[in-house]
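It would be a great kindness if you could assist me with a short task in structural biology. The matter concerns a single protein, recorded as an amino acid sequence and a row of backbone structure tokens. Kindly check, if you would, that the fold set down in the tokens agrees with what the sequence suggests. Thank you for your consideration; the sequence and its tokens are set out here:
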Amino acid sequence: MDKLADIATKLWWGGDPDEKNPTSGMSRRDVYNVKKSWTKINANAQGNGFLMFSRLFEADPESKTFFSYLSDTNIEQMARSFTFQAHIVFIMASLNSAVENLPQPEIVVPLMTKLGRAHHRQNIRRKHFRVFEEVLMNILKNDLRLSEEVVDSWTLFVAFMYKHMFTAITE
């Protein structure tokens, strides 16, 4: 029966659900976890994006200086800034593209390289992304209450994205 269950599992997942993809370092199960949880996050993309950035600015006030149009604004003014809202839409759309293409991680690589280059031109460094990662993981755990397994999958996803973004930042 174990052999039959193993075959059924592999058919269901399209292969071994825990085999790591050499490009992304993520398993089919990790991809599933990220994509499924992303549906919930993306349902309120602008609200969750704003939450991520407002928490980022709290955790790392220096990061707010990359947005010259936000320099003298409070949280309510930031929420009303159409320029800032457009940035949130762009970032969430970029994340959506990465999530949607996770089954083909070779497509995600150039997307993240391009995003890394854009941030490099703005003088944004690895340390700023590390704070963003901490903020994101905190939101996933404490605000969205995702399971430890799903958060672990997100950790792998972020590591995959950052690997290619950081390559562009150091070029």
Observations:
- The mean pLDDT is 91.
- DSSP finds eight helices and no strands in the chain.
- The helical segments are 2-13, 28-42, 45-59, 75-80, 82-100, 105-121, 126-143, 148-170.
